[in-house]
Each structure stands twice: as structure tokens, then as C-alpha cells.
Amino acid sequence: xxxxxxxxxxxxxxxxxxxxxxxxxxxxxxxxxxxxxxxxxxxxxxxxxxxxxxxxxxxxxxxxxxxxxxxxxxxxxxxxxxxxxxxxxxxxxxxxxxxxxxxxxxxxxxxxxxxxxxxxxxxxxxxxxxxxxxxxxxxxxxxxxxxxxxxxxxxxxx
Length: 158
Prior knowledge:
The chain has about 160 residues and is of the alpha+beta class. The chain folds into 2 domains: about 10-65; about 70-150, Nucleotidyltransferase, domain 5 (2-Layer Sandwich). Helices cover about 45% and strands about 20% of the residues. The protein is built from 5 helices and 4 strands, in the order αααβββαβα. Strands 3-2-1-4 form a 4-stranded mixed beta sheet, with helices on one face. The two termini are about 35 Å apart.
């Protein structure tokens, strides 16, 4: 349960405001107007403090409620433009095509691939099998992760 101890507003109003800000492209001033229409008069600076304070707690709670994933995963990368700069988008999807995790990186190399694999495994657990493309960076990254897993007694994945 998310604790709002010390907050002077109803829990439902605070969580609604944080959810609305994170889910939709509304500014803090727009959110101030939306909440005023619902009878809660809060300054836009207070909304900012709520988002900064409570959004990490909501993210941790949502991560713990995530349903288990299938035994097989596909991991790949692609080249995308983000704010005018070309970046690599690493992503992991399960057998049904549901995106499990993603990461943006400026480089396509072994450290970037290993960082992504470690991030994906820590947040989604260990699959029975990982399918990757023939990228040298992905192969080197998964070999590095397998070395770490072998040190702790886990079987190699791929």
C-alpha cells in the first residue's frame, strides 16, 4: 500500500492527479484546472511535488504486481531517431509479442547489450530461452551475462 502520511489532501485525489499527469500529456497547470473542476484546488507546484514524490512508489508497486512472463523471450535492437539524434532501441518481447522491457543507448556494443540483458533479467526474471539476432554485440552481451549467471550457479540461457 502506498503511504501518503503527512499529505493534506485525500489519497484518491493525489493518486488520481499523479496518474493523470503520467498517463496523459497534460501540463501541471492543465492538471490544476482539471482538479479544480473536480473540487480539489491545488497549486501546480504541489502537483509537481506529488509527481516527483509518489511516481517512483507507484512504479515499484506496479512492477511487483506484474504478471509472470512466458518461458521464451525475443531480444533485439533497432536504430531510431529520438529528439533529432539516432539511438539504439533495445527491447525484449515475450512469445505473445508483449513488450517486457526496453532501453535506449547511444552505442551498439557489448557493454550496452550486457546492461540491457541485466536490466531485462532483473525486472522480469530468468527465462528458459532467449532468442537474439546475429548481432555481435548481442552475442557478446549474452555471453557476459551467462558468465555472471554461472558464477552464481544458474544455468546458461540461450
